[in-house]
Write a structure and sequence with these properties.
Blueprint: E1 10-13, H1 18-29, E2 34-38, H2 44-56, E3 61-65, E4 83-86, H3 99-119, E5 126-130, H4 166-183, E6 189-193, H5 210-217
Parallel strand pairs: 1-2, 1-4, 2-3, 4-5, 5-6
């Protein structure tokens, strides 16, 4: 793969999210131009911190509306982009009423939607997918079944399901789908990041995000 042009805009999906917001800030501080997708431009309360970043870094950050379940909605934000950082995916671990609708479909179909758009965008050279350690393992007891009780990139979560730990299941099926789509072409390459739990200050003042709520509870 040819080297990525440092002057080309970087696309960050799910831009209002806890992790995505920090990715955007670091990219801006590094002098990059960033395209960020959000669900709605109308709800200023959810994107106030991104609007602040726009003011701090004039001309570097552009916001686009996109829906994980709406095909083609990421096309505009991906124009001239060589690097796509796909972080958009629902994160709920409690209060889930419909796991398939709330978690699985947005994660799986959203990944398909974004990567299908990548396939249709000639400029894209690399995709970085924010996955999770949950795609590698489900229950903690699973660690007793692997050699030396150590997981590697060869392992997949095989114990989570739609009815048992639907969030880890959503991350598993989404990452598997990403690798399948990546294998079917040679225009761009795929990297995945599989963190456990990310903690630290939030750039947003919102208190309803799962990551922030978890830290407040602790």
């Amino acid at each position: 793969m040819s080297q990525i042009n440092p002057k080309a805009p970087v696309l960050v999906t799910g831009g209002a999210g806890y992790i995505a917001s920090w990715i955007i800030r670091y990219l801006l501080e590094d002098g990059k131009k960033v395209n960020a997708t959000i669900r709605s431009l109308a709800d200023k309360s959810k994107i106030e911190h991104l609007l602040d970043l726009q003011s701090q870094f004039p001309g570097q950050l552009e916001l686009f509306e996109a829906d994980l379940l709406k095909r083609g909605s990421f096309a505009k934000s991906m124009e001239s982009v060589e690097l796509v950082m796909h972080t958009a995916s629902p994160f709920f671990i409690s209060g889930i009423k419909d796991p398939d609708k709330d978690l699985i479909q947005p994660a799986l179909e959203g990944t398909r939607n974004v990567l299908q758009t990548v396939n249709q965008t000639n400029s894209v050279k690399r995709v970085v997918l924010t996955s999770s350690v949950a795609a590698i393992m489900g229950d903690n007891i699973d660690s007793l079944q692997v050699p030396n009780q150590t997981f590697t990139e060869e392992h997949w979560n095989s114990t989570s399901s739609l009815k048992h730990q639907p969030y880890p299941y959503s991350k598993t099926v989404a990452e598997k789908e990403a690798w399948e789509i990546a294998k079917q072409q040679s225009k761009w390459d795929l990297l995945t990041i599989n963190p456990s739990f990310v903690m630290g200050p939030s750039l947003s003042k919102r208190l309803d995000a799962t990551s922030v709520d978890f830290m407040r509870n602790m």
